[in-house]
Amino acid sequence: MNSFWWEKTGSNQRGLRWMSWDKLTYHKSEGGLGFRKIHLYHLALLSKQSWKLVSEPNSLVAQVFKAHYYTSSSFLEANLGANPRYVWRSLLETKYLLSRGVRRRIGSGHQTLIWDTPWLPDVSNPYIVSACPPGLQLSAVSSLRLSDTCGWDVDLLNEVFEERDKNLIQSIPLSQRECEDRWIWGADPLGKGIYTVKTMVLWGIWNARNNVVWNGKLTPTTIVFHTAMDQHAQWLKTNKRHENNAPSSIQQISTAWCPPPSCFFKCNVDAALFTDPPRIGVGCIICYSSGAVISDMCGSLPGSFSSIIAEALAIREVLKWINELNLSKVIVESDALVVVEALRSTIQDVSSLGLILEYCSSLASELHSSFSFVRRSANQMAHSLARSSGSLSGFVRRVFSQPSVVSFFNV
Fold it and tell me: Of 199, 333, 369, 379, which is the most exposed, with the fewest CB atoms less than 10 Å away?
């Protein structure tokens, strides 16, 4: 490549090479021309193929490779083996890169071992650090769940795990439906668990290599990897600024509550976070088009969740309540813009949050219901109910046989 760059046009004479190819691959800010190594592009494309072997184990090509090279394990545990083909050698070169970012999303928990599997939501260390009690080496994550509810067995967690592991486990929301565990890409800057070819990561690795060769500076792999992902996230943020500055229909939303159209119901929902003990509060109020309140609900769920997951869980609980009331054509209003946009989006999300959103979208479709964003000032009643649920250990639900009209217009 260096010969091609410095060669004189239309001449067989070799040009004077003013700079080595390695230095040409430096970023322009570092004195180079920003060229990429073809090998790195090749490695990025191979990584995507290797990711398919991990994330789609039932595909034909994955089953063929498994039968030949890792019959009793997974791709992430595979070795080179005897007489490997060139294709297998190439794919195996990407195993280390994948192992740094791969994570296990918990569905039922039956297919994931508690120890020696990266399933905790921790960027720096997704593994259990607590000592494994004798005889539990092959225990699955499903053994940590309560059999009669969709929650964690807190007493068991307190008995077996250290504080760090216990808190991380409780921050994982559990699915309301039986679904398989699956591999996701934990380094996705959008948080959806989708693997894509990020040449910026490879570029960061290449820069780290250059620092070792030319400057004698060794950068830890974790710092190289996460710095590159942070840079990519900043790039996405910068390129979306023009979208944020553009006029939005959200800016036209009224700051006061308004009743739903005729023959529709409206359900306002909100979540609140509590720390002692860690749990989330849920509040909702359901009214008819006349403004008459027909039901309200407040309660709490145990667990230390992020604000986004807490809002999604609140919507899930509300939809379950709406289903029990046999209501349909319900407009579910929330002041969590990120969650509402995610529920409306058609982009695939295989993360733990995506599992909740998938359940909510599916149930809302069955109920012929929809989601709408509303400002906090128009959601004060649900917010107050969520905040008042701090002392509750379960849920309090009320249905009014003689609905009363409550004025939301001045709230």
Answer: 199
Distance, CA of 55 to CA of 184 (rounded, Å): 7
Whole-Å CA distances, 54 to 124, 186, 380? 21, 13, 46
Q: Which residues contact 361 (CB under 8 A, 6 or more apart)?
A: 343
Task: Please state the rounded mean pLDDT for residues 179-191.
Answer: 82
Structural element, H or E, at residue 210: helix 199-210
Q: Tell me the C-alpha to C-alpha distance, in Å, between residue 339 and each of 73, 270, 345, 356, 374.
A: 37, 11, 10, 10, 12
Return the percentage of the chain with pLDDT > 90, whole number: 46
pLDDT of residue 186: 82
Whole-number pLDDT of residue 199: 43
Contact 266, 331 (CB under 8 A): yes
Six-digit token pair at 397? 């639900």
DSSP state of 118: -
* pLDDT of 122 over the 80 cut: yes
Name the E strands within 239-311: 265-275, 278-288, 292-302
**256 contact partners, CB below 8 Å, separation of at least 6:** 377, 378, 408, 409, 410, 411
**Secondary structure of 323-346 in HEC code, one letter for each residue:** HHCCCCCEEEEECCHHHHHHHHCC
Q: Which two tokens stand for residue 260?
A: 């739903």
- Considering only the top CATH level, what class is 253-405? alpha beta
For the chain, domain boundaries: 253-405
Residue 103 vs residues 75, 140, 157, 183: alpha-carbon distances, Å: 14, 16, 21, 6
Per residue in 299-312, pLDDT (tens digit) is: 999 888 999 999 99
Between CA 324 and CA 285 the distance in angstroms is 15
Assign 104 to helix, strand or coil: strand
Closest to 299 (Cα-Cα) out of 179, 196, 173, 398: 398
Question: How is residue 408 annotated by DSSP?
Answer: -
Residue 176 pLDDT level (bands cut at 50, 70, 90)? confident
Cis geometry, peptide bond prior to residue 259 (ω within 30 degrees of 0): no
Please give the Cα distance from 53 to 62 (Å, whole number). Answer: 5
Amino acid letter for position 112 = T
- Output the furthest CA–CA distance in the chain (Å, rounded): 95
Output the DSSP codes for 287-300.
EETTSEEEEEEEEE
Question: In this structure, what token pair is assigned to residue 42?
Answer: 């090749």
CA atoms within 13 A on the CB side of 209: 12
In this structure, what are the phi and psi dihedrals at residue 100, rounded to the nearest 5 degrees?
Answer: -75, -25
pTM: 0.74
